[in-house]
Amino acid sequence: MRPRRAIPLLAAFILLACADAAWADRIGDLSQTDWREQAKRFITLRDPAVRYALAGSVLLGMSCGLLGGFIVVRKMALFGDMLSHAVLPGVALGFLWNMSKDPVAIFVGATLAGLLGAAAVTLLRRTTRLKEDTALGIVLALFFAVGICMVTRIQSLPQGNKSGIDKFLFGQAAALGADDVRLMAIVTALAVVLVCAFYKELLLTSFDSAFAASLRLPVAALHYGLMLLLAFAVVVALQAVGVVLVSAMLITPAAAAYLLTDRLHRLLLYAMLFGVLAGVAGAFVSFLGNNLPTGPFMVLAASTVFALAFLFSPRHGVVMRWWRRRAQAQRIQRENTLKAIYHVLEVRGFAHAHSVSLHELAARRQCAPDAARDEVMVLARHGLARLQPSSGTIDLTQTGWQRACEIVRNHRLWEWYLAHQVSIAPDHVHADAENIEHLLGEEMVCQIEHSLSGAGATSDPHGRPIPSRADMQRPFGTRAAADVVDTKGRMP
Known about the structure:
Layout (H helix, E strand, L loop, with lengths): L2 H15 L17 H10 L3 H26 L3 H10 L1 H11 L4 H25 L4 H24 L11 H4 L7 H20 L1 H9 L1 H6 L4 H23 L4 H13 L5 H25 L5 H19 L5 H30 L8 E2 H8 L3 H13 L3 E4 L4 E4 L1 H23 L9 H7 L5 H14 L13 H5 L19
Antiparallel strand pairs: 1-3, 2-3
């Protein structure tokens, strides 16, 4: 994380949160109008309530994305889920403190409840044989059940019927006021500043806590400090996204970012960006209707981002992996066709015509002539060969010849390496070479060639000559020294 990137944007939303309101209609209190008119009102930001909802959604996305990134890399997703449900009794206690939705009272009560839930999990782990996931499940269910009972009881009170405390279950950005947004801004600013200040320490403890402890870093203090910041972020997000779904806003944007990068600072930035996008999208969609909950739409937007990353991530996306496997299979098939053409020419001793007929290729590939024609047409589309329609013969291009020599060279070099360096019997090396010939990198090829030249070998374990780099650069159709083999299978 770099403070210069995050702090100016955060300051702008703090100013927005502290702006004076000319009038204070809630989004959910607006009468039902045409969705196009509602969209226009949201985009123009002419309503103070819209500005509060938008600022709160952005701040929520930033704080949840930032801290959710650490939750994902530390493999503590279930802990975040427990914490989000455990704060509900504290929300109810905060309301009962003065029978109003005082943001500070609710914040303090919810934070204490979240910390009590975390302490209960630690106590169960240390005093029983229960694993962490079991302890988390017990505490999550217990605290959430107590919270539901308390919220239901509050709603049955005369002054609790219109308290709006039910909005803490599923979230409603319309319920955000100026005090709520200010509190969210303070918590988000605190999280950004502390993460920027202790980024290196958090990075090290997230991936190798044992090494961090050996460097005398306060691993436990950093862990509990991060958990405290997480509790703050969960509490301030409750009113916008709800107890039930706040864990999704912690995990889903960070999980999407995790599929896109292997660098923690980029993961945190991406998670914040995805959280902001999800928050804005959820607030926008909930504004189009009357009393629509914001939390589910935020989670749907975050899930959409995750689905796109899951499908199209350059390295981990399902579609991209399928595309790479498909492209690799097609490349291997082209290279096998080139190798078959090379073998046909080699059997002739490279002494006669340099064209290969479709029947010769089909016999070598053990397929029908029509299938061989299709393979040659694929080579032609990639500029590797030319098919003469009148005679049905195949000529390699210079590029095709070079690639054919490379594949044969890789195959025979690997056979030589297995036979002479690994001491595998020559009749057991062919199958392995068939697989590795398409995957050998240039660095590995150079190392094997260096070993081969030191041993004075110029042929594979079966006595067939290994094409040299000079052979690959020679114009196709001309004879090379490597093309002439004596009766013992050796080059002159």
